[in-house]
Design a protein that fits this description.
18 helices, alpha/beta, single chain, 2 domains, disordered C terminus, TIM Barrel, eight-stranded parallel beta barrel, two-stranded antiparallel sheet
Length: 383
């Protein structure tokens, strides 16, 4: 496993374990993490050299921190745990410590290595972090040994990263989206490293939806073809300003696949990264509707499963599984809500980190998959 310099002299694994997709089970209408699968998975990751584990209070139906704490407790000094504080829960300075204590309790640890202001934008930074002196609270928590590094994760216009870094000079690391499809934060990633911050990338494979022509790597590098999944990791970690690529891994097969890829990525030179960057233009056509599947838009008051619908569009637009995607959409639409049931509240668009025009895109997908009039008549005759 390759390790890279991160924040304040720490060295973290180039592959980070994103703990938002741990295996779950449903019991009596409630969801729980399947610890019989999740705990061995997390421990095997550590055995293979992964030392950076990223969780959050809301992950896995609010259970992620608990399972991460259980899994890593026997090896706590050997790993770095990253978690987050939601600004939705903050209405005064004391709330910072209240939420911090909850995470410490769920993780069953005396300290958190990287404590992130979660998914912030400029508005939240000004209206809550500055207004309630949360930077002062974070510095106090660090002085008390409750956290070791002050961090933030970011969803906003790239130029506001500079504003946050320059204003909050105690920040030590940041978590931002970065992949071959979305390079919008690239300049600010370089700026953050110049200022001494560690940078971890979320969504390195575009939420599992990154795809490209099979021979793209060969055309760019002159080397034998590789899977586009590997190409995605090579691109992200080929950027020397990135310390870690986070990946949500649901099973041992995914873990072993990722570790194998990361072990190869150490050979990726800056020159190759610049070659791979050319792929962005060729992949732009796949980026018409870039949904990462984060599900922040859920629940929809009208019951529309927005991530599922956009996933089916990805099958059509990226993977070329046109008939399969259409059939699955029609099956979905038989019993579940679509854009036709939308009440127009716009909550989904307000919560979307990618700032998608969700209602417009849902209408586009519905029109795309809507059977032709001839097909409708044929089906009606068959019925």
């Amino acid at each position: 496993m390759e390790y890279r310099e991160y924040a304040a002299g720490t060295r973290i694994s180039a592959l980070g374990f994103g703990c938002m997709r741990l295996p779950e089970i449903e019991k009596n209408g409630s969801w729980y993490i399947d610890d019989e699968k999740a705990l061995p998975l997390l421990r095997e990751a550590a055995r293979l050299g992964v030392n950076y584990f990223d969780t959050a209070p809301g992950y896995c139906h609010t259970n992620s921190e608990i399972s991460v704490g259980r899994a890593l407790k026997p090896i706590r000094p050997q790993v770095y745990i990253s978690t987050k504080i939601s600004m939705d829960d903050i209405s005064c300075r004391d709330d910072y410590f209240r939420m911090l204590e909850k995470s410490l309790s769920r993780l069953d640890t005396p300290y958190i290595d990287f404590y992130h202001f979660w998914g912030i934008n400029k508005e939240v930074f000004d209206a809550k972090i500055l207004k309630y002196d949360l930077l002062g609270a974070a510095a106090e928590a660090k002085e008390q040994g409750l956290i070791r590094h002050i961090s933030f994760s970011f969803h906003d216009k790239p130029e506001y990263i500079k504003y946050i870094i320059d204003t909050a000079q105690i920040m030590e690391s940041m978590l931002v989206q970065y992949n071959l499809l979305d390079r919008s934060n690239e300049e600010m990633i370089a700026y953050a490293r110049k200022k001494g911050l560690g940078v971890a990338a979320m969504g390195p494979v575009g939420g599992g939806r990154l795809a490209a022509p099979a021979d793209l790597y060969t055309r760019l590098s002159g080397k034998p073809p590789i899977a586009t999944y590997e190409l995605a990791f090579r691109f992200v970690l080929g950027n020397s300003d990135i310390s870690c690529a986070l990946s949500g891994m649901e099973n041992l097969d995914m873990l072993n696949k990722n570790v194998d890829i990361i072990n190869k990525c150490g050979e990726t030179a800056r020159r190759e990264w610049e070659q791979l960057a050319q792929a962005e233009k060729q992949l732009r056509k796949f980026n018409e509707l870039y949904c990462t599947g984060c599900a922040y838009c859920q629940p929809c008051p009208a019951g529309i499963d927005i991530p599922r619908i956009f996933q089916l569009y990805t099958y059509h637009n990226v993977y070329g599984l046109n008939e399969y995607a259409r059939e699955q959409y029609m099956k979905y639409a038989e019993n579940k809500s679509t854009i036709k049931d939308c009440i127009g509240c716009g909550r989904c668009e307000h919560k979307c980190p990618q700032k998608l025009h969700i209602r417009r895109e849902l209408a586009m997908v519905d029109q795309l998959f809507e059977p032709s009039s001839d097909l409708k008549q044929t089906r009606a005759a068959e019925d």
